[in-house]
Amino acid sequence: MTEHSKEDRYQQRQQKIKAQVDARIDQANIERGQILVITGNGKGKSTAGFGVITRATGHGQRCAVAQFIKGNWACGERNLLSQHGVPFYVMATGFTWETQNKDSDTQAAQVVWQNCKQLLTDESIDVVLLDEMTYMVNFGYIDLEELCQALSQRPAHQSVVITGRACHRRLLEIADTVSEVKNVKHGFEAGLKARQGIDW
Ligand code: ATP
Ligand code: MG
Predict the structure, then answer these.
(1) Alpha-carbon distance 63 to 85, whole Å?
(2) Is the pLDDT of residue 93 over 80?
(3) Closest Cα to residue 180, out of 29, 49, 38, 1?
(4) Is the pLDDT confidence value at 83 over 70?
(5) Probe ligand 1: pick from 37, 43, 129, max atoms within 8 Å of CB?
(6) pTM of the full predicted structure?
(7) DSSP secondary structure letter of residue 158
(8) How far apart are CA 184 and CA 177, in angstroms?
(9) What is the dihedral of CA 142, 143, 149, 155, to 10 degrees?
């Protein structure tokens, strides 16, 4: 095949792909806030959630973050984003597997949840990250029905990102976009210590 005909075939193929992509872009014309779930056993769920908050903040949108479970841990994203006006609502008792007290954990989750409920009615907020929310539902600290109701009644333009493993089926159903991060391997299994800038 000559160089010329190779080039022609390449162009034809690219044009076909472009036509298909353009047709699909034309079909996606609903504009509203979205619910995104990032779940699964692999690393990268919270990183992705914070990525959305960073992206939206970069466009001048107003964002807020609720952190369940690892509240009192250091957090690079919190250091950065709070300097850019993003409020953080952090679960006071922090790491729940250490406290092992259902009543105090429930209470701590409920304090943050009250803030979340307010965020989910606030017209001025564009994107909310509910980091590690899936565990709050699975442990029974936050009522699933109440969460679903708050999500469905939120302002139409507001988007919400939910992260955490083992996301409840109901949340998967009401979400617009669900991504599952698969664990292929993790350095921790080979003895690598959690690292600043990589893990927190
Ligand atoms: P990250 O915050 O790095 O995006 P994540 O939100 O997907 O991770 P979590 O379940 O919230 O994962 O756990 C957070 C911590 O646990 C991080 O330090 C992360 O590196 C570590 N971690 C995540 N997945 C795994 C895994 N499959 N094996 C071991 N450690 C993991
Ligand atoms: Mg996480």
Answers:
(1) 8
(2) no
(3) 38
(4) yes
(5) 43
(6) 0.91
(7) -
(8) 22
(9) 0
